[in-house]
Amino acid sequence: MDRTELVLEDYFNAIFDTDRDEAIAVIDSALESGMAPQSIIFDIIIPSISRMERELVDKENSTLAQHYICSKVSSEITDRLIPLLPDSPISRGTIVLGTARGDYHGLGKKIVGSILNSNMFKVIDIGINVRPELFVRAALENNASVIGISSMMVHTSRGINGPRGVRKILKEKGLEKQIKIIVGGAPYLFDRNLYLETEADAWSPTAIEAVDEINRLLKEIDHDA
Ligand code: B12
């Protein structure tokens, strides 16, 4: 096993046992030994959440309570890692980011925001359970070119209170050429054409790939201007 695999194993065992202190100790020791914060997020925390889900759904080997603690600890550790990611002083554009109405999953959005931030975007995170009107209002108030909507459940991606609701308002206000919509989250991973159904301009499977997609959207806006 290489070092990353060892840390992954130790971290997974800690969260599987809902041992918050041990999970934090594993991450602190990984940081001390020189592991990069971004690698901890993508190579340790995200794979552990997926593995935890497999234990719950496929193997029926864990409980929803374990799952809940795992996501709480993961979120707390991600909060500690975000300030350690490089912060870029230059801004390529402003992105308003939130989780769709009715959806309380916030970890993916948090990671997307911090990766965009360290890739020269100004990110306005407006939280979870966000109504369509609030997305548009925040975009106008902050002169944002892109609205990013995270949906982790099928109904919060497809429903009228999700991206489609935002699209409807952009259309009504004649803002479609100046504000683009990007979406992401679990349902889009299961159905790669779903973003079209939700009337978004783009989607991305990961935070890293979102950087290129947003650059493409910004070019589209410049071209149309
Ligand atoms: C952790 C988790 C929870 C935690 C959430 C904690 C929190 N504060 O976030 C808890 C336990 C509270 C929870 C609750 C529920 N959950 Co839940 N949950 C999950 C789980 C296992 C992992 C989600 C996660 O954090 N992943 C880790 C992050 C880092 O990954 P990510 O979110 O996918 O984000 C990455 C990309 O998707 C992308 N991305 C994400 N957002 C965005 C946005 C943009 C703009 C872009 C570009 C990219 C992008 O970038 C991220 C980083 O690379 C998923 C399973 C799954 N496969 O996703 C189920 C899942 C989403 N949950 C599910 C369900 C059903 C529920 C509950 C209804 C359960 C219940 N019976 O109560 C409730 C819903 C509560 C609500 N109203 O929101 C279902 C949804 C199924 C469906 N068909 O709709 C899933 C898919 C589990 C399953 N297989 O059934 N959940």
Question: What do you see in this structure?
Answer:
Helices cover 57% and strands 10% of the residues. The protein has 225 residues and is an alpha/beta fold. Strands 2-1-3-4-5 form a five-stranded parallel sheet, with helices on both faces. Helix 5 (107-117) links the parallel strand 1 and strand 2. Helix 3 (37-57) runs antiparallel to helix 4 (64-81). The longest helix has 21 residues, at 37-57. The radius of gyration is 18 Å and the shape is globular. The mean pLDDT is 91. Bound molecules: cobalamin (B12). Residues 92-225 form the B12-binding domain. GO terms for molecular function: cobalamin binding; metal ion binding; methionine synthase activity. InterPro entries: Cbl-bd_cap, Cobalamin-bd, Cobalamin-bd_sf, Met_Synthase/Corrinoid.
Secondary structure layout plus pairing:
Layout: H1 3-16, H2 20-32, H3 37-57, H4 64-81, E1 94-99, H5 107-117, E2 122-125, H6 132-141, E3 146-150, H7 154-158, H8 163-172, E4 180-184, H9 186-190, H10 194-197, E5 202-203, H11 207-224
Parallel strand pairs: 1-2, 1-3, 3-4, 4-5
Helix pairs in contact: 1-2, 1-3, 2-4, 3-4, 5-11, 6-8
